[in-house]
Amino acid sequence: LLGGEVYHYHTKVMMKEARTGGQHLWHQDYGYWYKNGNLRPDMMTVFVAMDPCNQLNGGLELIVGSHKCGRIDHVLVHGQTAADEERVEQIKKKSSHVVANLNSGDALFFHSNVLHTSGPNNSNVRRYACLFAYNRADNDPVYKHHHPNYTPLQIVPNSAIDECTNFSDLSGKCLIDPDQDKTVNVQREDHQH
User: Fold this and answer.
1) Contact 53, 59 (CB under 8 A)
2) Entry's Pfam families (predicted)?
3) Rounded mean pLDDT of 82-93?
4) More confident site: 180 or 109
5) For the chain, what are the domain ranges?
C-alpha cells in the first residue's frame, strides 16, 4: 500500500472506557510523526477494533480524501497535537466527513495524512482499539526518538527459539521519556513530600 518495503513503526492500544470521555482532536498522524524526523508521509495506520466502534462510544471519524491536502499545520492544544482548526473546517466543506462504524475485529487502513478524530465515550460500552503504525524503510527518521528506526529483519532457523537464553533483558526498550518527546508538551515538576 505504501509502495515499498515497510517496517513496524509502533503499536498502541486506545482504551476508552464507558462514560469516561476521552476526545481526540482533529489531527493527522503525520502531524505527530513529522516532528519525529520522518521527512515524508510514507506512513500509515491500521486501526483494529477490539470492541464495536461507532459514534456513540467515541469511534473514529475521518475526512475522506483529506490525505490529498498534504500535511496541515499542527499546534499543541491541551497537550494534544491538533490540526489547524480553520483549515480542517474548510476541508470538511469540500469533502465527506464519515464515522467508521466498525465491528470487533474489523480493520481500517489509512494514510498518515488522513484527518481524523474521535469523540468522547459517553456510552455505557467501552471502546478499545489496537493501532499498528508502519513506515517505509527508505523514510527512516533523521534522528533518534521514542519510536524505532528501521532495522532489517534477519530470518533465522526455527531452532533459534530453542537456543534463546535471554528472557528478561529489556535493554533498549525504554518507555517514552516526556523530556525527550517532541510530540507532546509536558512540563514536569518535582514535588518533595
Assistant:
1) yes
2) PhyH
3) 96
4) 109
5) 6-139
HEC string of 109-127 equals EEECCCCEEECCECCCCCE
Beta-carbon contacts of 5 under 8 Å, excluding residues fewer than 6 positions away, are 136, 137, 138
The rounded distance, in Å, linking the Cα atoms of 78 and 84 is 14
| Calpha distance 126→16 (Å, rounded) | 6
Residue 49 CA: distances (Å) to CA of 3, 28, 104, 153: 25, 19, 5, 28
Higher pLDDT, 193 or 23: 23
The amino acid sitting at 55 is: Q
Cα–Cα distances in angstroms (integers) from residue 4 to residues 59, 102, 136, 174, in the given order = 30, 28, 6, 29
Q: Are 185 and 77 in contact (CB under 8 A)?
A: no
Model pLDDT, residue 174: 62
Specify the pLDDT at position 182. 66
Angle at CA of residue 107, ends 54 and 89, nearest 5°: 55
pTM, two decimals, is: 0.80
Taking a C-beta distance cutoff of 8 angstroms, is the pair 117, 31 a contact? no
CATH fold of the domain at 6-139? Jelly Rolls (2.60.120)
pLDDT of residue 8: 95
